[in-house]
Amino acid sequence: MISGQPKPAGGVSVVLKRGICGLLWGLVMLVSVPSSGMGQAGPVEIPSAERPPKIDGRIEMGEWTEAAEFEIGYEVSPGENIPAPVKTLVWISYDRNHLYLAFRCFDPKPEEIRAHYRDHDEIWSDDWVEVVLDTFNDQRRAYEFGVNPLGVQLDAINDDVNSSYDISWDAIWDSAGCLTDEGWEVEISIPFNQLRFPDHEGSQVWGLDLVRQYPRSLRHHLGLFPRLRGSNSYLSQERKISGLVGIRGGKDLEVSPTLTGNMSREKPDFPSGDWETDSAVDAGLTLGWGVTPNMTVAAAVNPDFSQVEADALQLDINTTFALFYPEARPFFLVGVDTFNTDLPLLHTRTIADPSIALKWTGKVGRQTFGVFSARDDVTNLIVPGAEGSMMGSLSERNTASVGRYRLDFGENSAAGFMLTDREGEGGYFNRVYSGDLRYRLSKRDEVTANLAWSESRYNDSMVEYFGLGDPDASGHASTLRYRHTGREWQWFLSYSDAAEGFRADLGFKPQVDYRRYFTSAGHRWWGGADRWFTSIYAGCNNLYEERSSDSGFSSRSLGCSLVYSGPLQSTLHLSANLGEQLYDSRHFSDDSLALSLGIRPNEIFSLFLFAFYGDGIDYAAVLPATRSGLSPSVSIHAGRHLSFDLQQNWAHLDREEGRLYSTSVTYFRSVYQFNRRSFLRIILQYARVDRNPELYLSEVDAGSETFASQLLFSYTINPRTLLYLGYSDTGYGDDDIALSRQNQSIFIKLGYAFLF
């Protein structure tokens, strides 16, 4: 990794910080008005149930006679608000502690129903139904609960403010499904203590959608109401329900102890020498308390931050910026949408090895807030630059803290503030102050803005580790965006920048010292269920980037793209780009062509292909090069229980003198799902790199290879009551070492959720 050195910077300007906060707060107060509805019909009242239905997936009408009845009557895609091709009836009732739903899905060809036993949140290619609940009726955030015909669950948070959909959120709820001669049926029970809603005993008004996915040659998306295509808000169109009198979350106290054991061995003098064995047992405890129906406190001591699936292999070859890995640890995923902003100021994988963590999130009226803090025994750092970043990990403790406040106004707009702070040993600190605004001008037009200021000081060990010229750094970063999402025409304008001294050590910001101007526009043609395409999009975009430190040219590009979707769930995406970029004071061409194809002709096979060809740079030698790559993949469902995924990635970099390197990465994943609660999974990853040593400036191996495998057995009652038992190993080889195993480990993880 390489990095431009930060420009010497003084302390943070108090006047600027106060100006940022004052400007945003003044704007919020100027435009703040209570939320208003969309002129829809009055809410449908949900009756209470005298006795709870039995959740077994078989609808006995005697259990649902008092429930409110709905019909999912519209196809919203690919057909535009036309009558649904299949009939779906839904019944909803409740008691003091639970919301109950039953779906009866009729199908003229039951033999074509797509239903497989899968892990939690993996039902997307099946038939499924879903309930969407906007419990605060604020048209900004909703809970989604989905179920396939075999009762497999999906749950998610739909964040309408930030246009994000987060399936990492997990709730504890009950569902069951079964196939019938007429189609399939599903029953659902959702405890109110898994939701957040206004804290009062009287009648509640919630937003509602009921959804059915009907995948055949086309993916028919069916809903409760007609949708406005091109609208920038889905939740503003939802139906309303009322009733729900006297509902409560109970004590809503969840105590989740975990026990993780690991036994591993490795060769310190690899590849020779003896194996050395090590073992460890870690106990942890996580507490979740719903103080009120709209406020939650969570705490964790030696929290369970283990992952049960390895990160997908990424090769750090001929790259200058740090690689991104998504968060997958349960504690940090709770309430994660509260902390979302356009600037990536919080990425919790920077918190590497916490010993204790606390979190408090809630919503009162139009105000949303969140606070969390974690004591971390390791300090992970990314030092960003204009053309690359440096990354390191130091055995130094730090305390990471984040505070977030957001005020909703108008129908779908919001403004907020956030502070991230990391304080470490030897005087190290990083603080980021930010304000953000999302203002929806109409159903099709919106403006977003995010402005941040950071101040940082590195300690002596960090200065030495990264070779920094100045321990102090400060600067600003910002984004300003305008988006129009019409039914046919769409356009987007944005400006973003980051000063040379800007740092977001709790986020993911590997590049600074730039000003970026981006515009795009395109047109979409809509087909339908009876045409050779469902939609076609054609558009162009333009990018210009310069250094913020000296306003010098950095890069420019002009791109065009064509996107097609049609029968057999087929997709095609073709893009072409003409560009130029500056690297290490030299100008390089940046022309490229990319193609991706996908098809799911039936419930058994799914095929995908990505191909790329274009200009590149040999960053070590600072010479022009040509990049090319090919990535085919296939997914196979062999019956209801067994699945296979195979992906192959080839990439090449060629210079005028010949090929610099070739890489090959193979990923294989197979799962046997015994039922909806347990599975056996194997993951195999193999990567090989072949180089031409004569073209390198330093000595390199002509070939190197790595190998990783994982075998996992999982049994889950719910997302926090579970058993994992697994084995993993890794291997390495090069010119002097035959591919040999480097380490092995066996692990077990036990967790149990006590609900009070």
Description:
- The protein has 756 residues and is mostly beta strands.
- Helices cover 4% and strands 55% of the residues.
- The chain contains three helices and 43 strands.
- The strands form four sheets. It has a 24-stranded antiparallel barrel.
- A hairpin with a 6-residue loop joins strand 30 and strand 31 (553-566).
- The longest helix has 18 residues, at 14-31.
- It is globular and about 80 Å long.
- It starts with 13 loop residues before the first helix and ends with a strand.
Brief characterization of the structure:
The chain has 756 residues and is mainly beta. Helices cover 4% and strands 55% of the residues.
* Cα shape: globular
Oligomeric organization of the protein chains = single chain
Strand residue content: over 45%
| N-to-C CA distance | 50 Å
Task: Give the overall pLDDT as a whole number.
Answer: 89
What is the helix content? Answer: under 10%
- Total number of strands: 43
The poorly predicted ranges are 1-39
Structural class by secondary-structure content: mainly beta
Keywords:
756 residues, mainly beta, 24-stranded antiparallel barrel, ten-stranded mixed sheet, 55% strand, globular, disordered N terminus
